[in-house]
Specification:
This protein is an alpha/beta fold. Helices cover 45% and strands 17% of the residues. The protein folds into six domains: 10-112, MutS, DNA mismatch repair protein, domain I (3-Layer(aba) Sandwich); 130-270, MutS, connector domain (Nucleotidyltransferase, domain 5); 313-374 and 382-409 and 561-578, no CATH class; 444-546, Orthogonal Bundle (MutS, DNA mismatch repair protein, Chain A, domain 3); 584-820, Rossmann fold, CATH 3.40.50.300; 835-875. It binds adenosine-5'-diphosphate.
Length: 876
Amino acid sequence: MNKKDNNLTPMMEQYLKIKENHKEEILFFRLGDFYEMFLDDAVIASRELDIALTKRAGNSANSYPMCGVPYHVADSYISKLINKGYKVAICDQMEDPALAKGLVKRGVTKILTPGTFTDTNYLKRDENNYLLSAIINRNNIYISYADYSTGEVYTTFKTFFNFDDLTNFFTDECYRINPSEILINKQDDKKLNVFLTSSQFYINYIEDIFDGVDLSVEEESFINENIFKDLSTLKNEGKIDDYSSINVLLKYLIKTQKMSLNHLNSIIYYEDKNFLILDEHCKKNLELIKGINTDNRSESLLEILDSTKTAMGSRELKKWIEEPLVNKKQIEERFDILESFISDLMLLDSTGTLLKQIYDIERLSVKISNKSINPKEMVSLSNSLEYIEDIKELFSRSENKMINKLSYNLNSLEQIRSEINTIIVDDPPVIIDDNRFIKHGYSEELDELFEASEKGKQWILDLEEREKNRTGIKKLRVKYNKILGYFIEVTKANIEQVPSDYIRKQTLVGSERYFSIELKEMESRLLGSKDEALKLQMKIFNSLKAFLLSNLFSIQKTAKEIAKIDVLVSLSIVAKNNNYVRPTLNTEGVISIKDGRHPIVESKFTEELFVPNDTCMDMDKNLIHVITGPNMAGKSTYMRQVAIIIIMAQMGSFVPCKSANISIVDRIFTRIGASDNLARGDSTFMVEMKEVSNIIKNATKDSFLILDEVGRGTSTYDGLSIAWSIIEYIATAVKAKTLFATHYHELVNLSEKYDNVTNLTIAVEKKEDSIVFLRKIIEGFSNNSYGIEVAKLAGVNEYIVNRANELLTDMQNEEEMKINKNVLNNKTYKVEQKSIFDVKKDDFIKDVNAINVNEISPIQALNLLDQIIKKSKDLI
Ligand code: ADP
């Protein structure tokens, strides 16, 4: 269908004209009480939203697809589309349809995209919703990101020696920030493009959105003064220029929101050297935010540490975990506060109880900014401020200096509270309708208007009684409807008794409807005063909104302060409940932990006890620990535990151990397990080597490295040689503290060659043909991986276990474990054992016998039968 089609209805012409400027979005076109979608948009929306697709006949013979959703539930449909990666443009009626002459004016009032969506009903309460923009220009990168729902804006700029490092930085930032939407200029680097096209992120290209648009923001009236001030400072410092990511970010927000960005109040310039850098692998391997098995916050460090009471605190805690500090003084200040809370459990408890009552006032800021805050939310704000006042008072009464100090920064915004309290009723509505929500006594004029309308209403209510008596018509009724207004209804049977002053208005089958001059006069007085009362009510409400807007920054500051207190309280509660201790910090490179525990693994243990272990590392003899020992002994757990304790300490948390002295580290790198990274287009071994190369390149003597079975992804001698030379390189060149777990027992020889390499192993007790894990880390090494024993414990069948034992004995007999091809190819079994067929048959019988017919559904039974048939065919 095209715009010039002469047979189009005027409405459809209007639609197509608007749609032309919103090709990328699904256009929600307001028609009466519905948002309608047409043509391709309708086809997509009906499929994605599971709503009926209908056809609308045009003036011409052709018809076109359409579908629609009621406007008052549109939010839930919009959020569904956004979650599925679509953008939505909202086209509203720009004038009252009742007053419009001809076609109602319509225009797009908002564009909703994943990174700019602010509906708190559909955003995750404990996660920020970031929009990120990046401009990459040769080896320079500008990154900015903002959470439009809370008003935070960050920016940074970095230059790299080569594009590979820039790409690594960019991808790490993407994983750290985890934006819902990315804006980036088009790239011609293959590796970066693979990331952009195949990662899970929602990517927009700046050239597609702002083709030929001037990106300067100086003329933009939607941006507030403070942002302009920050922009000019950053520009003077050379951290941004006219074509920076921050301009793109602001332009995009203006383009989509189409309203003032009042609550974006400052731009925070950040540098990664201000916090402990944790890359994507590290966050994933150490399960800081998500459990590896669960892929959500359960079984993660975040879950363990999250005892926060407010949504703001929960979001803040996540930031603390992802961005631990490196400044000793700042970290110790957090420790001091935790210590103060833990020493006064009553205070801790009371603060927690008060925090629980506090609303997500940070996310209210966007509503204050765009003036969409409703009366109910205002009261929630005021109640929250009341609780904040209580917290402030509680803190100021404390005898503890650290707690007192917390109260100084807490502003409970007395004036805002009292304004809301004197103006808005205690239990106001969410939706503003014809009801009153301004308190009695606040405005005399308003009281009078409402009173007049109430009186009129009462007069009309009394009229029925009066007229019944006057006319003697028992069934006379005074009624109201939208079209007629108030009227008197008399059934046909009583028409004779109708007095002469009644004026007939409408005739129905069984009755007649009348009005009287007196009734109409009262009605217009009543409706008039109600109308005026509502107008005045809105005026008062709007000036209260304006007042809140003028105080927006103080509200945001208070929200931030509460988020911080909530995190500190949460860390104190968790430290106390889990027996964590305050670590000591040093800058001498010593990491000494007595009886350390893994906070996540220990939390899963209920009956068995988690075995604590010591750690003693320094820049000297204990720089690198080569850890050998069987699979499943606890090597990975131990290494992760050390890294997590360091992270916890640097984020200001107490740590799971008896005592700890932690040297502040600048980066933690982890290379754990074999994982394909298909999103980056690499094979397993390639990924492993890229990670190693990145670690070696970026680690400093202040970094902490975990390398778990590096070299395993290739053949034995290749792998061993690579692992060997990596340790040599770290020991002599990088000098970063390193835990290196390996099955290459040859590597234990490195400790003889290098003073700073020590061997550790995890104790096991060998019992006949089985082993018992003692989980205790000790100095020394193990020259046996007990792989076959572990395979047996894991339930690998008898044939494989016996045959492996046999091969192993053969191989061990060969000089230097060289694998003699004859062993694999020519020799027959020495041990008497079942044939492969017998083992398979036994397994099959075991499986069938294990089925409990009473416990399975018919469908499950059919599935099992299917499998049994397949397996039995295999045995023939
Ligand atoms: P490895 O890396 O040596 O193969 P893991 O670290 O994966 O072994 O540990 C295997 C399992 O052993 C863990 O899942 C955990 O249940 C248990 N485990 C590890 N360390 C301990 C410990 N210190 N105390 C108790 N159980 C532990």
